[in-house]
Amino acid sequence: MRRIKVNTATGRSVLIIGGKLNDLPSLLPPCRLFIITDNNVRALYGDSFPPAEVLTVQPGEESKSLMVAGELCSRLLAAGADRSSFILGFGGGVVCDIAGFVASVYMRGLRHAFVSTTLLSQVDASIGGKTGVNMGRFKNMIGTFKQPEFVLCDHTLLSTLPDTELLSGLGELIKHAAIGDRELFFDISASLSRLFEHDQVSLENLIYRAVKIKAAIVRRDPLEDGIRRVLNFGHTFGHVLETAYQIPHGIAVMEGMMIAAELSVWKGELPYTEARILKSTLESAGVMKVHDLPENILGLIIKDKKSESEYVNMVLLQSIGKAVVRKLHIDELKAFTEYFIQMEG
Ligand SMILES: NC(=O)c1ccc[n+]([C@@H]2O[C@H](COP(=O)([O-])OP(=O)(O)OC[C@H]3O[C@@H](n4cnc5c(N)ncnc54)[C@H](O)[C@@H]3O)[C@@H](O)[C@H]2O)c1
C-alpha cells in the first residue's frame, strides 16, 4: 500500500493506492456517514459498507445529471444530513463525479471521500477534485472543484469488473503514460495480458505510477488554468464519440487518442512512427476501430467546454511521454477532420 498526498488551494487529499476495504473504519471521521453508490456496486459490496445511510443511483452515465443530483440532495435533507455529515462516494467514475458534486453543493459543501471501484476511477476519475454532471449530450458542463479527503483504491475490487470496463480504465491509464511517462507506456504495453488477468502486483505498480503523474499535474494546476489541460489528451474527440455511440468513457478516450495522434502527425508535431506505436498498443489492448466521426463533429467540439471562441485547445503529442497544448483555429480542425474521414474511409 502506498500513499500519495495532493495538497492544493482547493483542498488536501490522500490517495491510498493498494489500500484495503478493511482500512475504511480507521479513515472515516466520527461523523454521521452517508454513502452514495450505484445499484451494481451495492449488490456486490453492500455487505462491506460501514454503518451508514446508503443512497443509490442507477448505474451509468445517465445518473450524471442535475436531476439526479437534486434527488440526492432531497434524500440527504429528508434523512437529516447537516453540515457536520460526511459523504462517501463508493463506486466508479460516475458515482465519484456525482457524489463529489453533491458534496460540494449540498448546504454549501460537506466533507467527502471516495472508495474507488473501477480501474478508470482508480487511475483518474476519483483523483484531482473535479466533480461534474452532464447537460443533455454535453459532458461535465456543470461542476465544481473540491478535493476528496481521501481516495481508497483497493485493487481487489477490480476482480468483479467486466472486461469492457477494465479496457475502459486502461484507456486513462495509457493516456497518463502517453502524456507524461514513456517508460510507463512501454511497461503497460508489456503488461496487457497480466492486467486482464487482474494480476495484483502489476495493477498496483502501474496504477501507482499513473496516479503519480496525475497528482503531480493537479498539484501544479488544481483549477485547470494551464498544464492540467494535457490530461484531456484524446478527450475532445473522445467526448463526441462517447455521446454519439454510447460507448464507455475510457474506450472513447482510446479512440480519441488515436485521432489526436493523427492530428499531431498532421500538424508536424509527432513523428509518424510514434503515432504507429501508440495505435498498435491501443489495438493490442482491444480497440478494434475508430467509430466514424459524426457529421456535425465541429459543432459538437465547439460546444465542448474546452473551446474558446473560434479556437479550440487541443492536446497534441510530440513524442510518447510528452504532450503539448495548442490552440487550433476551427478552420484548421475542419481541414483535419475532412482529411481524417477521407483517410479512414
Ligand atoms: N472527475 C474526473 O476527473 C474524471 C476523470 C475521468 C473520467 N471521469 C468520468 O468518469 C465516468 C466513467 O467512470 P467509470 O468508467 O468508472 O464508469 P462507471 O462509474 O459508470 O462504472 C462502470 C460500470 O462498472 C460498474 N462497477 C463499478 N465498480 C464495479 C466493480 N468493482 N465490479 C463490477 N462492476 C463495477 C458500475 O456499476 C458501472 O456499471 C465518466 O462519466 C467520466 O466522465 C471523471
Q: How would you describe this structure to a colleague?
A:
By secondary structure, the chain is of the alpha/beta class. It folds into two domains: 2-161, Rossmann fold (3-Layer(aba) Sandwich); 223-344, Dehydroquinate synthase-like - alpha domain (Dehydroquinate synthase-like, alpha domain), CATH 1.20.1090. 47% of the residues lie in helices and 20% in strands. The chain is built from 14 helices and twelve strands. The protein has helices spanning 24-27, 39-45, 66-78, 93-105, 119-125, 163-180, 182-190, 192-196, 200-220, 235-245, 249-266, 272-285, 297-303, 330-344; strands at residues 2-8, 11-17, 33-38, 53-57, 86-91, 111-116, 133-135, 138-142, 150-153, 307-308, 311-319, 322-329. The protein has a seven-stranded mixed sheet with strand order 1-2-9-6-5-3-4. A three-stranded antiparallel sheet has the order 10-11-12. The chain has a two-stranded antiparallel ribbon with strand order 7-8. Strand 7 (133-135) and strand 8 (138-142) form a beta hairpin. Helix 5 runs parallel beside helix 9 (200-220). The mean pLDDT is 95. The structure holds nicotinamide-adenine-dinucleotide (NAD). Nicotinamide-adenine-dinucleotide is lined by residues 38, 40-41, 44, 59-61, 64, 91-95, 97, 117-118, 120-121, 124-125, 128, 130, 139, 157, 160-161, 165, 168, 248-250.
